[in-house]
Give the backbone structure.
Amino acid sequence: MHAVIPYVVAGLLFALGVYGVLRRRNAILVLMAVELMLNAVNLILVAADATIKSALDGVQPEAWAYPVPEPRAGAIFALFVIVLAAAEVGVGLAIILQYYRLRRAVVLDEIALHDHEDDDEIADNKSARVTG
Amino acid sequence: MTVADALMLALGAIAVGSGVYVVTSAHLVRAGFYLVVSLGAVAGLYLVLGAELVAWVQILVYVGAVVVLLLFAVMLTRAPIGPSKDLDRPVAPAALIGGGVGLGLTVLLVDAFRWTEYELPPPGTGRRVGEQIFGAWVLPFEVLSILLLAALVGAIVLSRPDIGARPDPSAAAVPDLPPPGPVDESAEVKARLERIAARQAAARERMRAAESPDPGEAPPLEKTREDVLKEQAHDVVFRAGDARPKLGVPEIAELSEGGKSDPRVIEGTSRENPERALPRGEDRALPRGNDRALPRAPEKDDEET
C-alpha cells in the first residue's frame, strides 16, 4: 500500500471544503463544506493509524509514545471527530432554522452582527418578502 | 500497484469528484446527495485502510443522520427546487485560497511520503477499538458524552422560543410593538383573514335567518338554480343519483320490466300499477321543477358559499 494516496485524497478534500466555505453564501451549503473538511481530517487520522505500525519500525519504544500496548489510536480519534461533527451539525442547524424563522433568509452575507435592533434592515426584509 | 492501491485510487477519485459537485452544484438538494456519495467513498477508504468500525460508524452517523438532517434543513428553509442563482460569492478569492490550500497540502504530503510502500495492518476488530476506548481513552469518551448532551439541550433550547425567552427591556419600553413573526404582518395575509371573518359572519347570519321562526321566508325557497345544477353535476360525477330514491319516475318500472339481465330484480313484483303513477303530479308541484327528491336541510347551504 502506498500511503501517499489516502493522504493526497484527504488534502484535496480539505481544499474542497475550504473552497466551499469561502464560496458558498447559503448557510446549509457552508455546513456541507465543513463536513467535507472534517472528513478529510478523519481520513488523515485513519491513514496515520494504518501506517504508524510499520513507520515506527526500529524506533526506540518510549513510555510516552505507548499509552496502550498497540500504538493505534487514530481510529479512536476519528470516532471522536465523528461525534463532534454530529453535535456541530445539530447545533448549527438549530441556529440556522431559528435565524430562518426570524428573518426568512439563510444567506450568510446579510447577517448583521453588530446591531440586532436594526429596524431598517428588518423593514427591507419585509418588503422583499412581500414583493418576492 | 496492489489491489489496495487501485481500490484507494478509485474511491479517492469518487470522493474528490463528488466533493467538487458538492461545492459547485447550483442545486441545494443535489449538493446534499453528492455529499452522500462523497462520504460513502470515504467510508470505503476507511474499510480499505482496515478501520472497519470507523467505516460503519461513518455510514451510520454521517450518511444516515447528518446528511438527512441537512436535507431536512434544506426543505425546512423552503429551498427552491431547481437551480438557485444567488448561491455563490465571486469565485476569485475562494478559488485562490482553496487552490492554494490544496496545492500546499498535496505538495507537502507527496514530499513527505513519496512513493513509499507501507505494510497494511491486519484489519482492526471492534474488540481492539473497544479495549482502547474504554481503557486508555475513557475520560475523553465520557467528556464527549457530556458534550453530546449539552449539544442536544442547546439545540432544543435554540429551536423552542418559549424556553428561556427573556423579557426584552426595549420591548418593555414600547409594549405595543408587533412581534416580528412571519405570519402576522403582510397585507396579503391580513386581507385574507378579513375575508375569512366576513365569510364567517355571513354564514352566521344565514344560520340565524334559517333558525328564526319567520314563516315568510321558508328555507326550501333558498334552493337556487345553481344549487340544483351543482347537485346534478355531483350525481353525474359520483353516480349518487342512482342510489337516491326517486319519486314517480317511470323509467324504474320500464327498467324492471326490460332489464332481465339483472339477477337482483325479482320478476312479477315490479309491474307498473296506476297507483304509482299518481305522485308525478305532486312532483311537478315542487319548487323550480327539479325532478329530484325534497330539498335538503338549510344548514348545508352554508358550506357551499
Q: What stands out?
A: Chain B touches chain A through 98 residues (CB under 8 Å). Chain B has two domains: 3-84+96-146, 218-304. The domain at 3-84+96-146 of chain B is CATH 1.20.120.1200 (Four Helix Bundle (Hemerythrin (Met), subunit A)).
